[in-house]
Amino acid sequence: MDFTIHCLRYDDIVHKEDSMRYRVQAKNVEKVYMDDGKTKTEEFKILRQCLESEIEHYSDITKAKLIFMPVCVGKHYFVYCINLIHNRIDILDSIDYFWAGTSPKPHHQSIYDKLPIINAAFQKVTKDKFSQFDNWSRPFIDVPKQAGPNDRMFFLWKYMEF
């Protein structure tokens, strides 16, 4: 995952200068989302440390328009995008729940439950300059879906790239 984010950042710096500081890819944040039984205080500390190390790459994270956070639940990766343009959290998920006959809600509930912690960490790191986003809507964005069971990382990369 770290190498993927590194490549995306490099691509922004070298080839897409206009997107620098417009979109942010957070690489270490996904560690917090694992259902590891840690207390909220421990999760907050880990997330704050991850965010502090991430924002050193950006002059002012509060000016970003899109913040991409890769998330892992079980063996599945998807992307949560804090969309400051539309004041919502876009969910980019490659599983086609309609064809699988399941609901996405159970797969995402653990992340929904941690949004207040994620929001609090952003507030702490930015000294309350970042928009409060824990109660924003969370639409599932219509994105291409994976056909094979092992395609998730490819889709994650593509979602964060565009």
TrEMBL record:
Pfam families recorded: Peptidase_C48 (PF02902)
Protein keywords: Hydrolase, Protease
A molecular function (GO) term: cysteine-type peptidase activity
InterPro entries: Papain-like_cys_pep_sf, Peptidase_C48_C
Keyword field contains Protease: yes
Lineage top rank: taxon: Eukaryota
Gene Ontology biological process terms in this record: proteolysis
Residue ranges of domain Ubiquitin-like protease family profile in the record: 30-150
Family according to the record: Belongs to the peptidase C48 family.
Protein name: Ubiquitin-like protease family profile domain-containing protein
Annotated source species: Panicum hallii
Taxonomy of the source species: Eukaryota, Viridiplantae, Streptophyta, Embryophyta, Tracheophyta
